[in-house]
Design goal:
166 residues; alpha/beta; Rossmann fold; seven-stranded mixed β-sheet; 7 strands
Length: 166
């Protein structure tokens, strides 16, 4: 197993519901302008995590995979949006802005959560929360949260405290 980067946090989920609950906790701490990047193969739990993130963030909208539509937009009662994007069908030569509206505009009006983010890494803001997800077996997933920037270091500390206390 590789050594974690500084400030990274490793979590082993033992069920789909636990993965969703981790997302709920994370969603509680997201603020307008935040970027969450999800990396992982098919079946690693990315959409399940986003379902929890949207719920914790405050959206009552049904969360589905945006693989074919590229971006799903979920609303918050305060008028902001969670932009749930999927870069699986995008190519690195395709500008991200054309796929998800105007990136700056989206971040000014909400939160961006991107599945298959590794495909668009050079187009994404350098400061973000990067989540690597791995399939272990039909129930278990391995998640590694890596904060890129002070805001995300603080966010990750809050998430750890919410999950484990003290």
């Amino acid at each position: 197993m590789p050594i974690l980067k500084p400030h990274a946090f490793e979590f082993f989920s033992h069920s789909t519901e636990q993965t969703r609950r981790v997302g709920v906790r994370l969603g509680n701490f997201l603020q307008t302008g935040d970027v969450v990047c999800l990396e992982g193969d098919l079946g690693s739990g990315k959409t399940t995590l986003v379902q929890g993130i949207a719920q914790g963030w405050g959206s009552a909208d049904k969360v589905t995979s945006p693989t074919y539509v590229i971006v799903n937009q979920y609303s918050h009662p305060n008028g902001t949006f969670l932009y749930h994007t999927d870069a699986y069908r995008l190519t690195p030569s395709e500008p991200l802005d054309s796929a998800i509206l105007e990136l700056d505009q989206a971040l000014a009006n909400g939160v961006l959560v991107m599945e298959w983010a590794e495909r668009m890494k050079t187009d994404l803001p350098k400061e973000n929360l990067w989540v690597e997800m791995d399939w272990i077996n039909s129930e278990q997933r391995h998640l590694v949260f890596t904060p890129n920037g002070k805001r995300y270091e603080q966010l990750l500390k809050k998430l750890q405290k919410a999950l484990f206390g003290a």
